[in-house]
Write a structure and sequence with these properties.
three-stranded antiparallel sheet; about 35% strand; about 160 residues; four-stranded antiparallel sheet; single chain; alpha+beta; Aminopeptidase
């Protein structure tokens, strides 16, 4: 595989939204009910908010000759905003490549505390890179509840 990592651009937003929605619709039913899956996936259809989600953070994009394979973002205050991999490329190391890019960026920006709200799916990736669970929370989206894992990583 010839994977390249680059920063997201405004011209990527529609393709990233499609990847997000497709991946959620494919993987979420393994751990979430149909209502949760639909609400989660629907965020990608709110293009103005989705664009802000991608472009307000520093978002890394993994690509190869087939197009965009995944993305991961981090804000200036150390919040890891997303780690999504195209559904046909899950468990092939792309999430790890993206997380390495996020951590390298954080290190160079001298961030000493990173945090995220992890889903049932992303939790393992965060833990692989040394994040630990410090709490859980229930959030409501359009009247539907979701459990999230609050994770953090600190270094000096």
């Amino acid at each position: 595989m010839n994977i390249k990592i680059r920063l997201a651009e405004a011209s990527d937003v529609l393709e990233l939204a499609k990847l997000y929605e497709t991946t959620v619709l494919e993987i979420a039913p393994k751990k979430y009910n149909p209502e949760q899956t639909q609400i989660w996936a629907s965020f990608a259809r709110d293009i103005s908010n989705f664009q802000e989600f991608i472009l307000k953070a520093t978002t890394f994009v993994a690509t190869d000759e087939t197009g965009i394979l995944g993305f991961a973002g981090i804000t200036d205050n150390g919040r890891v905003t997303a780690t999504y991999v195209r559904s046909d490329h899950i468990r092939q190391g792309i999430g790890s490549l993206l997380m390495e890019s996020v951590l390298e960026y954080a290190y160079h920006q001298k961030m000493t505390h990173l945090y995220a709200e992890a889903s049932e799916f992303s939790l393992g990736l965060f833990q692989k890179f040394g994040f630990f669970i410090y709490d859980t929370e229930i959030v409501e989206r359009q009247g539907v509840e979701f459990k999230r894992y609050l994770v953090e990583l600190m270094w000096h």
